[in-house]
Amino acid sequence: MSSLKWWQTAVFYQIYPRSFADGNGDGIGDFKGATEKLDYLTALGVDAIWLSPHFPSPNWDCGYDISDYCSVAPEYGTLDDFKNFLNESHKRNIRVILDLVLNHTSDEHPWFIESKSSRDNPKADWYVWVDAPPNNWQSCFDGNAWTYATERDQYYYHYFMKQQPDLNWHNPKVKQAMWDAVRFWLDMGVDGYRLDAIGTIFEDPNLTPHTVPMNLAELRRFSELAQTPEDMELKEKYWHDMFKHQWGQDGVHELMKELRSILDEYDGDRMLVGEDDNIDYMGNGKDELHLVFNFPLMRTEKLTPEHIRKNQTERLSSLQALSAEKGWPCNTLGNHDCSRIYTRFGSKLHGPELARLHAALVLTLKGTPFLYNGEEIGMTDHLLTEISQVKDTMGVWYYHTIVTEMGVHPDEAMVRTAEMTRDKNRTPMQWSNSPNAGFSPKDVSTWLPVNQNYKEGINVHDQEKNPSSLLNYYKHLLRIRKESSALKEGEYIPLQNTTDEYFAFLRHSAEQIVLVVLIFSESTLDMDFSSVNEVKDAKLKPIFSSAERRNGETVPKFKVSPFEVYIAEVIRE
Ligand code: GLC
Fold first, then answer.
1. I need a labelling partner for 321 at 20 to 30 A (CA). Which of 293, 311, 515, 550 fits?
2. How confident is the model at residue 554 (pLDDT cuts 50, 70, 90)?
């Protein structure tokens, strides 16, 4: 029997509510739609949902600017609709974690409206106010980080858009109010939280200016045009230096400990996963976050065996080193903030093969996998062509800034904007080959345009019927994972340390050893595991093979096909 917690063996699936399922036919996703799709998620085989923000919001940052933490955005339904979604999920043994945005609220949140109204109201210091901008800090979304409010004749600080003022977490009343909201949903039965942008909660108390010789728009533009190795390096350095005084500052650990202790008051192993890759936020392994994402795995241009091996070695050894309890890994390749896996890590020639390889990777590595809605059918980025279509307002800001302040031609600005906005990876889920991809009824204008490639088989309905579709491949892999103790909980043992043509490793639990071979090569290869102790005198029993391998194959040497995914149980007599 496994001693692991549910969040260690679960496969999570991120629902971006605006784009997941439109139940009332208004062009926007909602709880009615999402509830109707729970059977789809059961059939897919996921165990838990991470729900991106579903709270009332003016949507300057697509829901990450919250104006009421204890309610449901009317376009998604009512609180009862949410409760129904939660209950129906639980009935199917699917847990639900919510998104918790701690750093900032919407500027339309009553707390901010009150705080802004005068210098001496009860919430006057719930946000970060100054008489004059004390430094050159930038917002990472829209230029200057200090914005003027006439009512107080003062400036407030915002790390993100000016419609997302930063809360003053030094104020105990802020904490109290936010912890009340946290309890509100935990009392209702939610299984935990994904914590948004925790690194940005505190700022350098000395307000040290950044030293980058550019503002945000100039840095973005510089980054787009950078080509030489020197400029590429400079770009990295500038991004780091521009924001280094605005995130990762002291105070977060204490806050995470407080939050953890609230969760621990509840039964049912409620959990926290932080939007950060810093394992320090797991504290001693028991007193802060349960998980943080292994973002370094996906922060690469290309997923090569060399990159993956190095990532795993570093990541797993630092997680082992946590003091009280070893840290558990958490892997993902995509979410609502970045280009879709199929586009980013794919290639013109081998898109389908690579999508399968990458799915196998995230589902066989040690740790909790997070999938992003739509990746299971191979949804791709959809580049917008008109500025009027852009909903990600950081993109709108950038477009206008480079056109008006830098003289960039609107056509070029649009191309750049389409690439940088996150709209491209947030388009409506493609459910079928009917108009609007079956997301909304025909003739309804969806909140973001539907990617027309739903007509080319990139939709759920067509793929459900096709045994060799990507969707059925995901389902199969998820089932394999569920049935294998080694894949769910086994240790990771790397094999072969040099080649970039394949990535092979063992997963080793008390009950089972599994060999995973992922071929990243376009050619047929000869595998030889004769120097691997666990494998050399064993039989390999395939439990998954994209090349339809059969039982009883001779080991430890065999041929593999281009891009093959091979998972076998190692049977030792
Ligand atoms: C996180 C979210 C992102 C949002 C930002 C500000 O990074 O994932 O979508 O824009 O925080 O809340």
1. 515
2. low
Confidence (pLDDT) at 277: 97
Exposure string of 409-428, with b = 16+ CB inside 10 Å and e = fewer, is eeeebbebbbebbbbbbbbb
Ligand 1, atom 6: closest residue by C-alpha: 64
Q: How far apart are CA 566 and CA 543, in angstroms?
A: 8
Ligand 1 pocket, Cβ-based, cut-off 6 angstroms? 61, 64, 101, 160, 196-197, 275, 336-337
Residue 109 has pLDDT above 80, yes or no: yes
In 386-484, which residue ranges form alpha helices assigned H by DSSP? 393-404, 410-420, 460-465, 470-483
* Domain range summary for the chain, segments of one domain joined by +: 6-102+171-202+250-381+457-473, 110-157, 489-571
- Residues designated as active site: 196, 275
Q: How far is CA 143 from CA 84, 140, 158, 203, in A?
A: 41, 7, 10, 17
β-strands 95-101, 192-196 pairing: parallel
CATH 2.130.10.10 assigned to 489-571: no
Q: Which CATH code fits 6-102+171-202+250-381+457-473? A: 3.20.20.80
Look at residue 572 and tell me whether its pLDDT is greater than 90: no
Show the tokens assigned to 538.
Answer: 């064993």
